[in-house]
Design goal:
The structure is a single chain. The protein folds into two domains: 200 residues, SGNH hydrolase (Rossmann fold, 3-Layer(aba) Sandwich); 84 residues, Immunoglobulin-like, CATH 2.60.40.2550. Helices cover 35% and strands 28% of the residues. The protein has eight helices and twelve strands. The strands form three sheets. Strands 2-1-3-4-5 form a five-stranded parallel sheet, sandwiched between helices. The chain has a four-stranded antiparallel sheet with strand order 9-8-11-12, with no helix packed on it. Helix 4 packs across helix 6 and helix 5 runs parallel beside helix 6.
Length: 296
């Protein structure tokens, strides 16, 4: 079944979607499987006439510290989103007494700071568990993964950045695995859904284009609707004028938050004819003017 497209895709304000995927083996891909091809398909299907670029910067076996060393080279000259999925190998090292959780946390904080300084939009991913059903050692590793994920959630919250909670979605469904930790085709596809939804949330929060639809139905005998998409909160005033320029009504004069709003109008008391509706924002950043017809 094809991915469900978010409504925000219709109102995306940019010409392209650029996604860097950065991390260890799950990012690199294993045995010919990866999530990047799925992710590209999702964006191509839903964001019509937008340039889509999903890049892969994964190195198998890498820790957060090793990722940090190559981060600047990976993001040099890049724009857009960066998906950060690294830390499973840290958990293995921590269980073996070769690293501390504090080091992993410090490395991720530095990764996020570097990315933010480069004006990229980071998406921190929680880590999937190992299949620990036959291993006490991997049970201990998974306990550490839980702690790392909690640190990652705190980092996201403290820095005001977004989290793709892969662990919460995959949970302990090891039918999604091809080995003790790496996803199979179904698992990679599920990860692509998590990332797609997370990036769409960022777009809905930060990258909508101010849009005012034609009223529908038009012509109208009385009741009609207008869609207003706000890129940010602002006070909006909607005025309806006769074709001669007489102010007929001010149905809205209030603050609207980010997102799509459906404005419902009752024009049943208006004489038949052609009218103009104008929407302006208190900030002065947004304005739109359209015509509507009242028929009897």
């Amino acid at each position: 079944m094809a991915v469900s497209c978010p409504e925000s895709a219709q109102y995306y304000s940019k010409d392209s979607i650029n996604v860097i995927t950065f991390g260890a083996s799950t990012v690199e891909g294993v045995k010919g499987l990866e999530f990047q091809s799925y992710l590209t398909q999702h964006f191509t299907r839903c964001y019509i006439n937008k340039a889509i670029r999903v890049e892969k910067y994964g190195v198998s076996g890498e820790t957060t510290g090793e990722s940090l060393l190559r981060l600047n080279a990976a993001i040099s000259g890049k724009t857009g989103f960066i998906v950060i999925l690294v830390g499973v190998n840290d958990a293995v090292r921590i269980e073996a007494g070769r690293q501390s959780i504090a080091e992993t946390e410090a490395n991720m904080r530095q990764i996020i700071n570097t990315v933010l300084n480069r004006k990229l939009i980071p998406l921190i991913c929680t880590l999937q568990f190992f299949d620990d059903r036959n291993s006490q050692r991997l049970k201990r590793v998974n306990s550490i993964i839980t702690q790392i994920n909690n640190r990652y959630r705190n980092i996201a919250r403290e820095n005001g950045v977004y989290l793709a909670d892969i662990n919460r979605v995959v949970r302990r469904d090891f039918s999604l695995y091809q080995d003790e930790v790496h996803p199979n085709a179904r698992g990679y596809r599920l990860i692509s859904f998590v990332l797609f939804d997370s990036i769409n949330k960022i777009i809905a929060d930060r990258f909508l284009q101010f849009t005012v639809s034609q009223n529908y139905p038009n012509p109208t005998a009385g009741h009609t609707s207008i869609d207003v998409v706000m890129p940010e909160p602002d006070k909006i005033e909607l005025k309806i004028y006769s074709i001669q320029g007489k102010l007929m009504s001010v149905p809205i004069n209030e603050y609207l938050n980010t997102g799509k709003h459906v404005v419902k109008l009752d024009l049943s008391q208006f004489p038949a004819g052609l009218y103009i509706y104008k929407i302006t924002s208190y900030s002065g950043l947004y304005t739109a003017t359209k015509k509507l017809i009242v028929s009897r």
